[in-house]
Write a structure and sequence with these properties.
This is DNA-binding protein. By secondary structure, this protein is mainly alpha-helical. The protein has one domain. The protein contains three helices and two strands, in the order βααβα. It has a two-stranded antiparallel sheet with strand order 1-2. Helix 1 packs across helix 2.
Length: 65
Amino acid sequence: MAGQIFMRVDEVASELGVSKPYAYKLIKKMNEELKQTGCITISGRIDRKFFYEKFYGTRDQRKEK
């Protein structure tokens, strides 16, 4: 899914090794944080760069396998 701005719940669940319901909760929490900074968010999707910054401490994507 390289080249896409947003990650969907399936990709988040796979990346973190969690269930889809838990991935939805994480996405919702991250989107709430983004809303507080004035960003527009989409339910069920998270900005890829923000995701990697929050979980891996970097804005760079991990290398694709």
